[in-house]
Specification:
alpha/beta, UDP-N-acetylmuramoyl-L-alanine:D-glutamate ligase, six-stranded mixed sheet, three-stranded antiparallel sheet, 9 helices, 21% strand, globular
């Protein structure tokens, strides 16, 4: 196990997204995951049925005790429900983990449509969180909110990615899964002017719950292990595609991935 990732995000009781997916992904990448829980959700494959935010002071305490003892080689954030939560997380990370790789997944809406970020917190996220990040990983609806523009094709994705870079973040992985068509295009844009497209066939499945959380955490694990950004992104994209292909089919709605797709059954059998 190599590389320490502090994951700051909400809990998904269904296990497919949130902290649960984050920890599984980080472990699958061979890194160590520690957590600071920002909210509890009552959630399954059919949607989010309830949200209970964690007090900001307790979020601060979770971050502080982890960083002061275990430390972190990367930080990954997910659901940050409101302005006090964003402020608390940014204050602690800036003070205790300056210069540490920081992957920010600007979670706003759950797969089933439930809002996970209050509308009034969007400007705080843009002002405080994005400038701290090494990489942000918005999907298209999130990018539309951050940019204030409609994104209906890959050309618009490119414009949006370039616009997001002006918010102070050095790199953007804009996920194109919400566009229709047989091919999914993701764009990696960096502040040196490079924009690279990653294309893959669209998986014919509804079992894609937690793909964004999983991808961002897998990237954070790679950065924690000393991988270059592009290499960490390429490995994480391949992992997510494999995890989708191996999805177990649980639940009546958008089911979880197989986060254990990297597990070697022979090594498990040897423990018997």
């Amino acid at each position: 196990m190599r590389g320490r990732v502090l994951i700051v995000a909400g809990s998904d009781s269904g296990g497919g997204a949130g902290i649960q997916a984050d920890l599984k992904a980080v472990t699958a990448m061979g890194a160590f995951g520690a957590t600071a829980i920002t909210a509890l959700t009552a959630q399954n494959t059919l949607g989010v049925h309830g949200v209970l935010p964690v007090e900001p002071d307790f979020i601060r305490q979770q971050i502080r005790v982890v960083l002061e003892d275990i430390g972190a080689d990367a930080v990954k954030t997910g659901m940050l429900h409101d302005t006090p939560t964003i402020e608390a997380v940014c204050d602690e990370v800036a003070a205790l983990a300056p210069g540490v790789a920081f992957v920010a997944d600007p979670v706003m809406i759950a797969k089933g449509g439930h809002a996970l970020l209050l509308p009034e917190a969007v400007e705080t996220l843009k002002r405080r969180l994005l400038p701290l990040a090494t990489l942000i990983t918005p999907n298209l609806p999130e990018a539309e909110v951050l940019c204030g523009m409609a994104i209906r094709d890959v050309a618009a994705m490119r414009r949006a990615a370039e616009m997001l870079l002006t918010l102070g973040v050095p790199a953007v992985l804009l996920k194109g899964g919400h566009l229709e068509g047989p091919v999914v295009t993701d764009l990696l844009a960096t502040d040196d002017g490079t924009v690279e497209a990653f294309e893959a066939p669209r998986a014919a499945t509804r079992h894609t719950h937690g793909t964004g959380c999983t991808l961002a955490s897998a990237i954070a694990a790679g950065l924690a292990q000393g991988m270059a950004l592009r290499a960490a992104v390429v490995r994480a994209l391949a992992y997510v595609r494999a995890a989708i292909a191996a999805a177990p089919g649980y639940g009546q709605g958008h089911g979880p991935l197989d986060h254990a797709v990297t597990l070697d059954p022979a090594r498990l059998d040897a423990l018997r």
